[in-house]
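Curious: can you check?
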Amino acid sequence: MAWKDSYDIGVEKIDCQHRQLLAKLNEFFEACSNQQGKEKIEETLKFLKEYTIEHFSNEEQLMEEINFPELAEHRQTHADFVKAVLELEETVKTKGVSVLSTIKLNRTLTDWLINHINKCDKLIGQCMATRDKAI
């Protein structure tokens, strides 16, 4: 999956983190297409746990600073994503890596990129642009 400029929200720190996530997703997708998804899943889950702590904190702080109107809902989507990652990690720990867990992570990450970053996070950039014009 290639990064598109349309994914940028206009905040370099956040956009850089999003590009970092896409790069990691591409590593995972490539491993899956080479039948190595099982080997890569634990590394990807570890990355996601670390990434979400820093990235979601940065994003939520920015939303507070700009009085983002949908902050509570956005926080909830972050919490839901973390929960999904932790549940998947627990499944891998207790049941081992399976084709199903690999597919589930692949689907979760693709959905996050397409629906969350490209739709929900774009609203943050739009809110900032509107606020900047008003100043």
User: Anything to note?
Assistant: The helical segments are 12-33, 37-65, 71-95, 99-134. The mean pLDDT is 89. The radius of gyration is 16 Å.
